[in-house]
Amino acid sequence: MSKFTRREFLAASSAVMAAGVATSQEKGPDNPQPLEQKPNVLFINTDQQRTDTLRCYGNENVQTPHLDSLAARGTLFTSCYATQPVCSPCRSSMATGLFPNATGVVENNIPLPPNLFAWPRALHDAGYRTAYVGKWHLGVEPVPGYFDVWRGFETGWKHFVREEPYFAAPGEMDSAFRKRIAANPPVVAEGESVIGRYRPDLETDYALEFIAENQRRPFACWLSFYPPHTPKEAPEENVALYRGNIQPEEQAVYHAMVNRLDWNIGRILSRLDELNLPEKTLIIFTSDHGENFPMRWNSHHKRLCYDQAANVPLLISLPGTLQQGARSTAVAGIADLCPTILDVCGMGIPDGLHGESLKPLLTGKPEGWRDDAFIQNRPYPTPGKAGNLEEKPGKKPGMLERCLVTREWKLILNTSRPPELYDRRSAEPDTHNLFGRDETKAAAHMLARRMLEWAGRTGDGMTGQLVSQWGAQWL
Questions:
Q1: Which of 447, 441, 442 is nearest to 463 (CA)?
Q2: Structure confidence at residue 28 (pLDDT)
Q3: Tally of CB atoms within 10 A around 21
Q4: Mean pLDDT: which of 284-298, 303-317, 384-398 is highest?
Q5: Torsion 175-177-182-188 (CA) sign
Q6: Structural domain of 13
Q7: pTM (2 d.p.)
Q8: Residue 192 located in a structural domain
Q9: How far apart are CA 61 and CA 69, in angstroms?
Q10: Which has the closest alpha carbon to 155: 127, 135, 129?
Q11: Rounded distance, CA 374 to CA 410, Å?
């Protein structure tokens, strides 16, 4: 490995700070398919779900037979990472293939800019019938041109449907959201009240209805479940599976929520089988971030680069086209999903996307894969938000982080905390900080260089500042 001098670090850092995001120009597919031959797309994401909530990821204490079945039909990724381990920013990357600094959605509750390229709009414009069901969290209103059918809602509502015409008490919503849904009550389906139902059950009903109505034409359905995000609520029949077996009670309910989601996903897989659609439907299952059990230094459920919060499940299936029963240890990220959808659907991938298509990995051709992931992070909500008005010892609400993950290593740079370097091959990853040791300096050099390459690709100036700030410690 060539030595990266301090002068080179500073020069590269300055270049990164001045970089911008490249203008996108769409590259057409080599062999464009007619619309009727393109696969359907079913994109399912949960909220705040760790990888170890699924049996197919090795946890023998949980029951997730339907997601395990989905994994057997496709590829399971062990090392997929959120672009930013918090809801709205990562969701913006799911849609666009860009990192949050480029979408502008760097914190929760920031609307997705309507001018950005995104896979839902690309498929809609190509003739797909498109739908969104569930938690949106990228603004109060849908982005124009994305979806023909809109069953999406901003965040702020509970898992059980509580009172009409709202999915939550009126006091839990902002005024704009309240006015919009009051004009179109979401909790009455064909005149029948759904008060008291579990929200994912209802959302699954909507998705099944959309699939049945569009079974004879290409469709794209984005189904976004709110669980297992707080509040911890699940039907008693699911909680009973884990009560007494998983402690504390909060974690038992958390896993019960996943068990209920698994049941609903089973309903969808069964319907696709009945309609003879499995080999015509690309299914992607993932989450926007994980869950910190137990809490770590930021005392938050997420917003850290440790695997508990940043490593997310990723299952991708299209039998007959993509390999089945595969387990990939390649390092990937949420920004890779947009170009993957476009590639598998035989559509052009714009220049300037930060992610790359996973199709080579899904077809058993991993040669040349980059095998790393870049993470942008804000360990605390934006200063001034409720519950974040005062600084406590060691707590600096304005701090920022950048992280680079490879198969072997993880480097975390923070504006306020000392750097962290972890060996991912350890039996206790993200536990023993190896930064500053003579034997790990070469690894730190390599990771910092690759982090700067990602910063140049994404137009992220903060990375250059962090490398300059801490560079003296590894040069």
A1: 447
A2: 57
A3: 17
A4: 303-317
A5: negative
A6: 6-19+399-473
A7: 0.88
A8: no
A9: 17
A10: 135
A11: 10
